[in-house]
Amino acid sequence: MLPKVIIHNSISLDGSLTGFEPNMGLHYQIAGDYKPAVHLIGSNTAEVGVELFGNGVPPEEPSDFQKPKRDKSFPYWAIPDTKGILKGLLHACRRFEFCRDVVVLISETTPKEYVSYLEKRNYDYFVVGDEHVDLRQALELFSVKFKAKKVLTDTGRILGNLLLEQGLVDEVSLLVHPVIVGEKSYNVFGNISQNLKLKLRKQEKLDKGLVWLVYKVTN
Question: Do 9 and 155 form a contact (C-beta atoms < 8 A)?
Answer without folding.
Answer: no
